[in-house]
Amino acid sequence: MDIKSAAYLKSSAFIHQCPEHNSPEYAFIGRSNVGKSSLINMLTGNKKLAKTSATPGKTLLINHFLINGGQWYLVDLPGYGFAKRSKTERQKLENMISGYILQRRQLVNLFVLIDCRHAPQQIDLEFLQWLGESNIPFSIVFTKADKLSKQALAKSIDAYLQRLAEDWEPLPPHFITSAETRQGRDELLDYIDSINASIS
Ligand SMILES: Nc1nc2c(ncn2[C@@H]2O[C@H](COP(=O)(O)OP(=O)(O)O)[C@@H](O)[C@H]2O)c(=O)[nH]1
Ligand SMILES: [Mg+2]
């Protein structure tokens, strides 16, 4: 499958402000700076669609992007675990994120992004646990694959999957991507396509 058109639609602070439609939504989440916006730009082939930033913690809203005229939607969620925010600001963001994830009936799959260079971190593992307990369908996307050699990449991802295997049987689906080299693009789009086909 390919993306024929992609357009920014709306930014929302609450689920009740999110666009009304009946098409599937695929949302991206992960720590600030993990590469959510870059991945959306890479998938859609539009470098300017989602705002990317070298300064972490910029996206504070739920951003909807219309794909192929509304056949489906990509959703850029705020990053979690950005330490420099105040406690009230963090709480507000957490409510926004959990509200969307738990209540958005159009959400068919959540992509949880993990920097391929990082060892498993508590905040991500706990978030995955919470998704499992909440019965939210999700998959894992290892980002920034271009930052490691082939060998180091395989080693890092193996270690991560081994850690996940302590909590998950079977392992959730996972993808390896790079916004620079476009690695993983076809696999992710085919995966989205197969989910779209299974629910249409
Ligand atoms: N080398 C490399 N850099 C990336 C990749 N994805 C994102 N980045 C960089 O990481 C930073 C954060 O990316 P961004 O997409 O804004 O992260 P977000 O906060 O999760 O939306 C930016 O400086 C990006 O250019 C990637 O696949 N490869
Ligand atoms: Mg972003």
Number of DSSP helical runs: 5
Strand content: 15-25%
CATH C-level name: Alpha Beta
Query: What would you call the shape?
Result: globular
What's the Cα radius of gyration? 16 Å
Uncertain segments: none
The average pLDDT score comes to 92
Tally of individual domains? 1
Helical percentage: 25-40%
CATH architecture: 3-Layer(aba) Sandwich
Number of DSSP E strands: 7
Oligomerization: single chain
Distance between the termini: 15 Å
SSE run: EEHEEHEHEHEH
Strand order of the largest sheet: 1-3-4-2-5-6-7
- What name does CATH use for the topology? Rossmann fold
What does this structure look like?
- The chain has 200 residues and is α/β, with parallel strands linked by helices.
- It has a single domain, classed as P-loop containing nucleotide triphosphate hydrolases (Rossmann fold).
- 34% of the residues lie in helices and 21% in strands.
- It has helices at residues 36-44, 87-103, 122-133, 150-165, 185-199; strands at 6-12, 25-30, 62-67, 72-76, 107-115, 138-143, 174-176.
- A 7-stranded mixed β-sheet has the order 1-3-4-2-5-6-7, sandwiched between helices.
- A hairpin with a 4-residue loop joins β3 (62-67) and β4.
- It is globular and about 45 Å long.
- The mean pLDDT is 92.
- The structure holds guanosine-5'-diphosphate and magnesium ion (MG).
- Guanosine-5'-diphosphate (GDP) is lined by residues 30, 32-38, 52-54, 56, 59, 79, 143-144, 146-147, 178-180.
